[in-house]
Amino acid sequence: MDKDKITEVAFQIILHSGDARTLVHEALDAMYDSHFEAAKQKLEDATDNLNKAHNAQTELLQQYASGEDIKMEVILVHAQDHLMTTMTLQEMANEFLRMYERLANQTEGK
């Protein structure tokens, strides 16, 4: 795979994981304000973007698995880092959502 194609895939990963990261932060803001349905929608939208990023990553992995030489470019390393960081942030946001909802339910019960 040539450098231009690797760069293109890397930017697709960065684009979609960046969009997902923004949505996760918006979801966290919504949770803080007890807008749980909005937060859930933001997290679902983030998942859609992460899936798009993951699909771009999978394209590279499939080509590598079929024996094609994939030269590791710095931009690709950056893209992978961006994707994995955003995936971890989303996992934590899902846990925060559970916590915020539990706290809201306990507060309503008082």
Automatic annotation (TrEMBL):
<protein>
    <submittedName>
        <fullName>PTS cellobiose transporter subunit IIA</fullName>
    </submittedName>
</protein>
<keyword id="KW-0813">Transport</keyword>
<keyword id="KW-0762">Sugar transport</keyword>
<dbReference type="InterPro" id="IPR003188">
    <property type="entry name" value="PTS_IIA_lac/cel"/>
</dbReference>
<dbReference type="Pfam" id="PF02255">
    <property type="entry name" value="PTS_IIA"/>
</dbReference>
<feature type="coiled-coil region">
    <location>
        <begin position="36"/>
        <end position="63"/>
    </location>
</feature>
<keyword id="KW-0808">Transferase</keyword>
<feature type="modified residue" description="Phosphohistidine; by HPr">
    <location>
        <position position="78"/>
    </location>
</feature>
<dbReference type="InterPro" id="IPR036542">
    <property type="entry name" value="PTS_IIA_lac/cel_sf"/>
</dbReference>
<keyword id="KW-0598">Phosphotransferase system</keyword>
<keyword id="KW-0175">Coiled coil</keyword>
